[in-house]
């Protein structure tokens, strides 16, 4: 039975070959570097977001692929064409059209 890596007393209280101790040392060093690198990535990401938020045109998240005008045009095409036909004409996927149509209907209900 090997002792827990997270319990240093269990490791220190039992004699182990030098190879095992070296493995623990290397594992600990690599773990520390990995944690440090992760913290640095988080820190750089947060700094970049703070700088980007200073721009008044900043919008967090994924940019929209289609403008509202393009979506509205596609929705008007749906009055006379099928979803597949509108998809072929505009390049807007059926799922996006369905989602936009539901959103437009909800906005009409809510005012």
Short description:
The protein has 111 residues and is mostly helical.
Ordered list of secondary-structure elements with their pairings:
Elements: H1 8-13, H2 18-53, H3 68-77, H4 83-90, H5 94-110
Kindly describe this structure:
With about 110 residues, this protein is mostly helical. The protein has 5 helices and no strands. It has helices at about 10-15, 20-55, 70-75, 85-90, 95-110. The protein folds into 2 domains: about 20-60; about 70-110, Orthogonal Bundle (Arc Repressor Mutant, subunit A), CATH 1.10.10. InterPro entries: Cry35Ab1_HTH, Homeodomain-like_sf, Resolv_N, Resolvase-like_N_sf. It comes from Bacillus subtilis (strain 168). It holds the Pfam family HTH_49. Keywords: DNA-binding. This is Resolvase homolog YefC.
List keywords for this structure.
mainly alpha; Arc Repressor Mutant, subunit A
Class from helix and strand fractions: mainly alpha
CA radius of gyration is 28 Å
Biggest sheet overview: none
Approximate strand percentage: under 5%
Number of strands: 0
CA(first)-CA(last) distance: 68 Å
Percent of residues in helices comes to 55-70%
Mean pLDDT metric: 86
What is the domain tally? 2
- Which stretches are poorly predicted, pLDDT < 50 over at least 5 residues? none
Order of helices and strands: HHHHH
Q: What is the general shape?
A: elongated
Helix tally equals 5
Protein name: Resolvase homolog YefC
InterPro entries: Cry35Ab1_HTH, Homeodomain-like_sf, Resolv_N, Resolvase-like_N_sf
Pfam family, one: Resolvase
DNA-binding region: 83-102
């Amino acid at each position: 039975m090997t002792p827990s890596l997270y319990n240093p007393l269990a490791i220190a209280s039992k004699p182990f070959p030098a190879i095992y101790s070296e493995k623990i040392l290397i594992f600990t060093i690599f773990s520390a570097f990995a944690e440090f690198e992760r913290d640095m990535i988080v820190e750089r990401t947060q700094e970049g977001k703070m700088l980007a938020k200073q721009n008044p045109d900043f919008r967090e998240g994924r940019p929209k692929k289609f403008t509202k005008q393009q979506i509205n045009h596609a929705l008007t095409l749906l009055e006379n064409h099928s979803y597949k036909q509108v998809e072929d004409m505009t390049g807007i996927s059926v799922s996006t059209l369905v989602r936009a149509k539901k959103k437009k209907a909800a906005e009409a209900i809510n005012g």
